[in-house]
Amino acid sequence: MARCDLTVRGGGVFGLSIAYTLARRGAKVRLIEAVQIGAGASGGLVGALSPHVPENWNPKKAFQLDSLLMAEAFWAGVSAASGLPTGYARLGRLQPLADAQAVQTATARGVSAQTLWQQHAQWQVVPASGSAWEPASPTGLLIHDTLSARLHPRQAAAALAAALTALGGEVVLGAAEDCGPVIHATGAAGLQALSDALGRPVGGGVKGQALSLRHEARDQPQLFVDGLHIVPHADGSVAIGSTSERVWTEATSTDAQLDALHARAVAALPCLAGAPVLARWAGLRPRAKSRAPMLGAWPDRPGHFIANGGFKIGFGMAPKVAEVMADLVLDGRDTIPQGFRVEDSL
């Protein structure tokens, strides 16, 4: 029987990234996914890797910055190991500014970014150029940040699974036995299972809907306008998302809320008018009670660990989450920041 050192349960971006990082460090990993790779939120469409605003600095924002700065090398390694694209590109993001107060706030944040982002990226207020890809801005000014990046969620998940296999790991779909320590990265269903096991809520699923249009803008920055992420991808598609629904009837069905999202995107960016719809998606994104990723040992369950709660920023957080979980499980080194620990959501 082939050697197996440990198990990762869950074929979403947290589970796949952790398994890949463990394999890169020499571990023989069995990844078990009950349904299919990217069955939950990681099978979505948007793929916006965007930072929080550079102010009111805290461990969550610092962790995210580290992860976003790790991303280029991380995803390049995944592509090299798998031979598959991930759709990663760091092309920045534009946001319109509605009024003088917004301009003042954005300018102050730009000053903060010079320190907080450690000169690795910029947050600037820039004049609109009149490009068809730019949203209308009442002030004629836009925020341009150079930290934001994008990837294609489905491509990235497939590439991670292939990279894990190429490194000697095992990917199992369906039921399988655990070996060694077990890391549970099972998304919304995992948060519910953990809540049931502990007898109190630690988080749950928030439904999101998104769609993809056929429109060639692969070299353009992503946009954040009217509460929407508009993200061009390298395959000639543009993803638009997403809703945040606490109450729903069918977790994976799309409805008129997505039609409204589509209409708002076209209103914000008229060049998308008439672009054919390629795909519509709905699913549950795992949101921990603390609103930050939930990382660490499973309480009162020796040899079991939790990596969950990526919510809207799972792909952006994944490289750093993978590093932290590998430190913990392989080396016994706890580098989990305050606010990200399992007990913070209990």
Write the layout of secondary structure elements.
Elements: E1 6-9, H1 13-24, E2 29-33, E3 48-49, H2 59-82, E4 93-96, H3 100-116, E5 123-127, E6 141-145, E7 149-150, H4 153-166, E8 170-173, E9 182-184, H5 187-198, E10 203-214, E11 222-225, E12 228-232, E13 237-241, H6 256-268, E14 277-288, E15 294-297, E16 304-308, H7 314-331
Parallel strand pairs: 1-2, 1-9, 2-8, 4-11, 9-16
Antiparallel strand pairs: 3-7, 4-6, 5-6, 10-13, 10-14, 11-12, 12-13, 15-16
Total number of helices: 7
Q: How much beta, percentage-wise?
A: 15-25%
CATH homologous superfamily placement of the domain at 6-89 and 151-203 and 290-345: FAD/NAD(P)-binding domain
Helix share of residues?
A: 25-40%
The strand line-up of the biggest sheet is: 5-6-4-11-12-13-10-14
Structural class label: alpha/beta
Domain FAD dependent oxidoreductase: 5-328
Protein name: FAD-binding oxidoreductase
GO molecular function: oxidoreductase activity
GO cellular component, one term: cytoplasm
